[in-house]
Amino acid sequence: MSIEEIERLSVAERMELMEEIWASCRREIAEPETPEWHRKILRERLKKLEEGVAAYSIEEARTRLRG
Hints:
Layout: H1 3-8, H2 11-28, H3 36-51, H4 58-66
């Protein structure tokens, strides 16, 4: 399909086409393997979360992210 053909589609049709392309890419691309060092960090953070010993609350995290 050429750019000219795509541009002749309605916005709704182009959005549907993008969704179909994205879905086909996701099917073909395997999820990357999480490295062991990252798994360790995630396990440690999950343990702290379960113990209620987080470095800061979710509200503080949101504030920090908004900068």
